[in-house]
Design brief:
The complex is a heterodimer of chains A (757) and B (292). Chain A has 21 helices and 33 strands. By secondary structure, chain A is α+β, with helices and mostly antiparallel strands. The longest helix of chain A is centred in the C-terminal third of the chain and has 28 residues. The chains are: A alpha+beta (757), B alpha+beta (292).
């Protein structure tokens, strides 16, 4: 089967490589429009306050200032595309008041002829605040009845789900262990800082917004809803994007809507670009979790019960929160075949910058707790951690209890075997001799992550395939590429289906005026969901081609196929015509036809197939300083089918690196609401010199619902890295690190109480 | 913070006289630009003009019979790869240079800048302190010499006036057999971070005994400091594990670090002891008197 493909499964070069390597690619920050103004935000210095009075008179008289829009005029987005489903939901999506809820919450925006003037004008504004008591700790916030961050209380969402009978599960257990895990607020740290857009609100009522959003079509609907415009009047244009990882999964707090209001007032295009500091301090991050696990298991290593309790720090405003806790539920309940599970989650407001979508979406937090717990279980039983997973994981043919769907493809076992082989697990694990000042250890973890959002959210994908008169193909899709290369993958899928050279296909820019409805680039969904739509549209176009070809070649349609751009009779290959010749004939030459071939597809993917994977880490710990060096990582992932293996390897390397940061160094430090490490010197992501050898193992289980068998990969690659590293640290020095990031200081503290001097 | 640093004027004088004249004219409003790796990141708001010292001939490493002289504009990379500094007692300086920043930073950053920026966590000053280096500074009234140990005052403060320019660093030749060491513990467990504790050490030996020890620590006080009590514990003895441990513990009592986002006071004190111990072990190894 594998060998039958002409371009699927091949590492063709990226279609955007030339533009990016030569610097021709233009990102939102590079764009300039005629007459464009520059905007800056005045941000709250307080974590919780009411804006009592605003005096903007001096700023207004600044000659370069053209518009000012305040917190009282510009609504805040507090929801996501779930809200778009109903009118009631839409109403709840936007809030407007005069309260600031975190340090950095926007109070107003100024648009001026240049950035310096805008900044100067900000200093001329007088704000009278009434300070309100803040609350920073989510557990405190849950209990506190006196401080209300939002009208309806501080608990944004509560979920309680039970599968089986948890008490029965604990009765059946030989052992019960309880542990508590804490995770950090990681930032996306995209190479292009988050927060850049240009809004051009024409007096005619047409609004064009250039934004590096992951959700062009949902953003269009958000803006149309907030501004009372028909969707057709709002156009989102997405230029090249320097990484997103969930950080652009919606409207950015204080950005697009502010620019739209300022542009409407000024009658000119308005651009705003956040600085890196603003990105760190006032855009969404990964939700910190507090996870309490109580797990029961038999002496044979069979899990019988799991009680999961999560308190999730939402920050000041809730955008992505229900989905994030749902993903924690999905992995917490779905990965292992545990008959009795209780899951309880609280999403809680605090007076800190907001949290939202981030690669893994609730899963890395849950995975860190769950996979550390699995390691503890294995240790207790004296069982190999891989064996424990093999005994308990839920495989193909079984029903996922959360989605109530049958699992059609699962290559977890192969991931475990091949990954273990690569890192030489048998030789290295459970070393008995932990001696010396520098000690080595290995650890592993497992994961699953659903592809797309089919069972939780509206999840459309669409594509239009236009075959041109010269046989080349234009593919129109809103499947935004944030830098991961999914557009190239979609080209390969279209080329494979059409039987033409992939170089003959060009993909449209991401522009809502010219591309059909798409659910956005999130949830590792574009190769799967986008790919299904592209393949369908291509198949439809191909069918139309063959109808014409059948007439032209005077042979039955079912005997025709296309290969390398030539339509031929499969029984008599000498009977053929090139696609270019046929297209010219029917589109231009034959005056009675003049018809372009158009294939179109739209709809939702049939499933939400989980990607499976296993991470392996080898580390070295300095027992005198607590310092950890990651010596080697192996990531083995079941992707169904690798459309472009080089892209998958790239995702694995990138995800593992992001996972090293999550494990060891990354996490915003917030003291009294103020971010203390809003720069790359103090918020440390791994540098190239910190990155060890990373082996990528690709397992292909063939997902029957996927395009050519493919499912997602992007998020899975970072989900279990921190768990594997934490388990490797335990293997090396015998201390169980339950709080991220695992800094050298925390390890030293743990070592000293474990092994007092 | 403005995205770009936009001083009003930029000068690149061709002579020391001209440079000092410019410094006298502008005083506080001028900043000396060497590699720019600190200055262009700090973007000091009061700096109206930059005086670039690239054309003053201050980029050199000269060996002479009394030691080594290094021009203030010599890059950190040049120091790291210099043949003149590839034997004791200069290994501590070479190692400190190789531990500073990243290769790209080292290509730009200068020894003079690393001294004059006066960061309490700077790497090269510690090495210069244990080497007993002196600084040649030029001002309107001519040249003066100052010992590096007397250069740093409070946090970020230094013994140099706005109208003065650091010309060179002079390291005296060693009398007797020497072993040195530079140790650095970085903020995060990544290869290129700023130090949360750094240590330079030097031992001068006669036969099997240490006759003089010098230990300097960074990032644990408002300025780089000498650990005088620890030094005294090592004098005139053959170092062994117990003596070295005692000195390391003493050093950690001499420091006064802060609690901040990079590390706690508790951790820094602990690490001061570990790093001093490692520095003394390596120094005595390089002296040929370790292990016992």
């Amino acid at each position: 089967m594998k060998n039958e493909f002409s371009v699927v499964g091949k590492s063709v070069p990226r279609i955007d490589a030339y533009d990016k390597v030569t610097g021709r690619a233009r990102y939102c920050r590079d764009l300039k429009l005629e007459g464009m103004l520059h905007a800056k935000l005045l941000r709250s210095p307080y974590p919780h306050a009411r804006v009592k009075a605003l005096d903007v008179s001096r700023a207004k008289s600044h000659p370069a200032v053209k518009a000012i829009a305040t917190i009282e005029e510009v609504p805040k987005v507090v929801g996501y595309w779930w809200n778009l489903r109903t009118e009631k939901g839409m109403k709840k999506m936007f809030m407007q008041d005069n309260v600031v809820r975190f340090v950095g919450d926007p109070v107003l925006g100024v648009a001026a002829e240049d950035e310096d003037s805008a900044e100067e004008a900000l200093s001329m504004i007088l704000v009278q605040y009434e300070q309100l008591p803040p609350v920073f700790d989510p557990v405190e916030s849950m209990k506190d009845q006196t401080i209300k961050i939002h009208e309806r209380g501080n608990i944004a969402f509560h979920v309680l789900k039970e599968y089986g009978d948890i008490e029965k599960g604990f009765r059946e257990a030989d052992f019960v262990i309880e542990n508590r895990f804490v995770t950090s607020k990681q930032k996306h740290a995209t190479i292009e800082p988050i927060g850049s857009c240009i809004a051009d609100y024409s007096p005619s009522g047409k609004l064009s917004v250039y934004s590096s959003t992951q959700l062009p079509h949902w953003s269009r609907m958000y803006l149309a809803g907030a501004l009372g415009l028909p969707s057709s009047n709002v156009r989102i244009i997405k230029p090249y994007t320097g990484g997103a990882f969930g950080g652009r999964c919606g409207l950015i707090h204080g950005l697009e809507l502010m620019c739209c209001h300022l542009s409407k007032k000024a009658g000119r295009p308005v651009k705003m670009s956040f600085t890196r500091k603003e990105d760190f301090e006032a855009t969404e991050g990964r939700h910190p979790f507090l996870v309490e696990l109580r797990t029961g298991f038999t002496k044979e290593g069979i899990l019988t019960a799991n009680s999961i309790k999560i308190v999730m720090d939402v920050g000041a405003y809730a955008t992505h929160y229900i989905g994030v806790i749902a993903d924690a539920l999905s992995t917490g309940v779905g990965l292992y075949r545990i008959p009795h599970v209780k899951f309880e989650g609280y999403c809680v407001y605090t007076n800190k910058s907001l949290n939202g979508a981030f690669r893994g979406y609730g899963n890395p937090q849950m995975n860190f707790a769950q996979e550390s717990q699995m390691d503890i279980v294995a240790e207790k039983l004296g069982m190999d951690p891989i064996e424990l997973r093999l005994k308990n994981y839920r495989g193909a043919g079984e029903i996922d209890p959360v989605f109530n769907e049958k699992i059609l493809s699962c290559g977890l076992k192969e991931c475990l075997f091949q990954g273990a082989e690569k890192i030489r697990w048998k030789k290295k694990s459970r070393r008995s001799s932990r001696r010396g000042k520098i000690r080595k250890g290995v650890g592993m973890s497992c994961l699953m992550h659903g592809t797309g959002a089919r069972f939780g959210l509206p999840d459309p994908a669409s594509a239009i395939v236009l075959i041109n008169a010269d046989g080349s193909v234009s593919l129109e899709t809103a499947a935004a590429d944030d830098g991961q290369g999914n557009k190239t993958g979609l080209v390969q899928i279209a080329a494979e289906e059409l039987g033409i050279d992939w170089r003959k296909i060009s993909v449209s820019d991401t522009d809502t005026d010219t591309t059909p409805l798409d659910g956005g680039t999130h949830g590792s969904r574009q190769t799967y969901c986008g790919g299904i739509a592209v393949r369908k549209a291509a198949a439809q176009a191909k069918k139309s081609v063959l109808v014409f070809a059948s007439k032209h070649l005077n042979t039955p349609q079912n005997r025709l196929d296309i290969r390398e751009g030539v339509i031929y009779d499969t029984k008599r290959p000498s009977l053929n015509i090139s696609l270019a010749d046929l297209m010219r004939k029917i589109q231009i030459e034959d005056l009675s036809l003049c018809e372009q071939i158009i294939g179109a597809a739209t709809g939702v993917a049939p499933s939400m197939p989980p990607t499976y994977g296993a991470h392996f880490a080898e580390v070295e710990v300095d027992t005198e300083t607590g310092g950890v060096r990651v010596l080697r990582l192996v990531g083995a992932f079941d992707v169904g089918k690798a459309i472009n293996p080089a892209h998958i390897e790239g995702q694995i390397a990138g995800g593992e690196v992001m996972g090293i940061g999550y494990a060891l160094t990354e996490g915003l430090v917030i003291e009294n609401g103020k971010v203390m490490n809003s720069n790359f010197a103090d918020y440390r992501i791994p540098r190239s010199c910190d990155i060890p050898r990373i082996d990528a193992v690709i397992v292909e289980s063939h997902e029957p619902t996927g395009p050519f068998g493919a499912k997602g990969i992007g998020e899975a690659t970072m989900i279990g890295t921190a768990s594997a590293i934490a388990n490797a640290i335990y293997d090396a020095v015998g201390v169980r690190m339950k709080e991220l990031p695992i800094t050298q200081e925390k390890i030293l503290v743990a070592l000293q109480s474990f092994n007092p001097p | 913070m403005k995205p770009f640093f936009k001083p009003k004027a930029y000068f690149r004088p061709g002579s020391l006289g001209k440079a000092v004249e410019l410094l006298s004219n502008f005083g506080d409003r001028a900043k000396v630009l060497a590699g720019g790796t600190d200055l262009l990141v700090q973007k000091p708001s009061g700096a109206e003009c930059l005086i670039d010292i690239a054309d003053l001939g201050l980029e050199y490493i000269k060996e002479h019979e009394n030691g080594v002289e290094i021009g203030a504009a010599t890059t950190v990379r040049s120091i790291g790869v210099s043949g003149s500094l590839s034997s004791e007692p200069y290994l501590v300086l070479r190692d400190a240079a190789c531990a500073l920043g990243t290769p790209t930073i080292r290509n730009m950053a200068t020894i003079g800048g690393n001294i004059c920026n006066a960061s309490p966590a700077a790497d090269l000053p510690l090495a210069l302190m244990v080497l007993g280096a002196s600084l040649t500074i030029m001002g309107p009234a001519g040249k003066r010499e100052v010992n590096i140990g007397e250069f740093f005052e409070n946090i970020g403060g230094k013994n140099i006036q706005a109208d003065e320019l650091l010309l060179s660093i002079n390291i005296p030749a060693s009398r007797g057999r020497c072993g040195t060491s530079f140790q650095k513990l970085r903020h995060h467990q990544t290869s290129i971070d700023i130090a949360i504790v750094n240590v330079a050490a030097r031992m001068t030996c006669e036969k099997q005994a240490c006759v003089k020890a010098s230990i300097a620590l960074g990032a644990v006080a408002p300025t780089p400091i000498y650990a005088r009590k620890a030094e005294a514990l090592l004098g005139k003895k053959r170092p062994n594990a117990a003596i070295i441990q005692e000195a390391a513990s003493a050093a950690s009592e001499e420091v006064n670090p802060i609690d901040d986002v990079r590390g706690s006071k508790w951790y820094r004190k602990k690490m001061a002891a570990v790093l001093v111990r490692r520095a003394l072990e390596e120094s005595s190894r390089r002296c040929g008197i370790w292990p016992e």
